[in-house]
Amino acid sequence: MKKINKICCIGAGYVGGPTMSVIAHKCPEIKVTVVDINANRIKAWNDENLDKLPVYEPGLKEIIAETRNKNLFFSTEVDKAIDEAEMIFISVNTPTKTYGKGKGQAADLKFIELCARNIAKVAKDDKIVVEKSTLPVRTAQAIKNILDNTGNHVNFEILSNPEFLAEGTAINDLLHADRVLIGGDETPEGEAAKEALSAIYEHWLPKENILKTNIWSSELSKLVANAFLAQRISSINSISALCEKTDANVQEVSKAIGLDSRIGSKFLNASVGFGGSCFQKDILNLVYIAKSYGLQEVADYWEQVIIMNDYQKSRFANNIISTLYNTVSGKKIVFYGWAFKKDTNDTRESAAIYVADALLEEQAEIVIYDPKVSEERIYADLDYLNTRSEEENRKLVTVVKDPIDASKDAHAIAVLTEWDEFKAYNWETIFKQMLKPAFVFDGRRILDKEKINSIGFNYYRIGENA
Ligand SMILES: NC(=O)c1ccc[n+]([C@@H]2O[C@H](COP(=O)([O-])OP(=O)(O)OC[C@H]3O[C@@H](n4cnc5c(N)ncnc54)[C@H](O)[C@@H]3O)[C@@H](O)[C@H]2O)c1
Ligand SMILES: O=c1ccn([C@@H]2O[C@H](COP(=O)(O)OP(=O)(O)O[C@H]3O[C@H](CO)[C@@H](O)[C@H](O)[C@H]3O)[C@@H](O)[C@H]2O)c(=O)[nH]1
After folding, report:
1. What ipTM, to 2 d.p.?
2. Which has the closest alpha carbon to 116: 71, 74, 150, 72?
3. Domain 6-213 is in which class?
């Protein structure tokens, strides 16, 4: 079996950065180079101040401190890293297409294709090319065609090795992965490539947790895993709406059903709606693929998961508006949290963006506090929607660094992310500073209901009749 000494990863994002850091940490004899065309991102990965890394993940900076410039390197020299490596991971973004055929559903593979063309141009010896990005089923064939037809007639083995880490727990997920999936050709060369990749993971994971499949099963399994996970959230969120109309409590329902070992207790937390860069994109991709094979019923089934998620976000915003006497115009509403979940600085598809947009349409004044998200990012998220002018967004939205001070003269507080620190705030002080009646809308169900009510707040949370 070929022993790998040099790895290159194209794409220094939320997956490439943490994944390669863990590989470098666990495989000190392998030189790992992470490359990106975004020079600012690479500069941030190389910043001496580890609090300035472009990705915030608990445990990441400690690993970077140990490995960076020993056997882990971040660079913009893409061609050089490709040339040197025996194994190349492609970990670039695969967003939903915003133009042309499949607009709004299909995955945009232009970055993947550019990588394949670049590898073909540079490679002078045999390479194993690993799809780490999430890709539509049968993409490997397209990559192989490009490599074989434009390359220097060296041999490329393509593997699919989807990543299952969740942000906020990425390091732990990588160190203790439930499974690693490796798909590849069922030829002797394909099997050898799978073994070479497996040997890397075997540095820290039991061999029985490394699952080898054909390449198409591997590509499809990634989309299906995300669809199943998101489906659980939409299922419980649909029930949260029913709980709010009855005297049922969604947390009690979750617990009661989750204790059935066939259902299981994880991923049943009702919320303001799932966000993140993956769930929506990957389900839309699955919907598109199903449609393109003429499977309309299959497509409709999965699309409902997204429809329910959109409904949950607008339901939350509408409840704020109707509770505040059907008008939020000129009212100060404080958002606690902007990230799509706790322990990450990522805001892609965060429910907070859509709730803010709905309230801004009603001319609310929004004050936002998030412990890890920058002001620049928040304005960029709102501007990207193109709902109103950039000036209007800056007029109606303020981003602050002091969450307690923010509550002065506020009509309402909305909890959009489940950051632990929100639970520990002095809610008595917050209450005193707010206009009365003082409202709290808890989109994450993290506050102590009895305590908050006893302070005098009008408290609403997802999945419970107030
Ligand atoms: N974020 C997650 O939690 C997660 C988890 C599992 C899988 N995934 C999948 O992994 C892939 C990457 O996701 P991400 O969140 O890390 O994206 P990201 O946007 O954070 O990072 C992608 C990086 O690739 C770089 N890039 C794009 N084209 C390039 C090129 N031709 N050459 C060099 N660099 C290039 C970009 O500049 C960017 O820095 C996606 O397919 C995603 O679906 C993401
Ligand atoms: O019970 C739950 C669990 C999650 N969420 C929300 O769902 C979203 C996604 O959360 P999570 O799955 O923990 O984070 P991601 O980083 O998006 O990770 C998902 O997407 C990744 C990208 O494909 C996959 O690798 C992971 O396995 C998959 O969990 C977030 O907004 C969460 O707040 C809920 O509302 N209720």
Report:
1. 0.98
2. 150
3. alpha beta
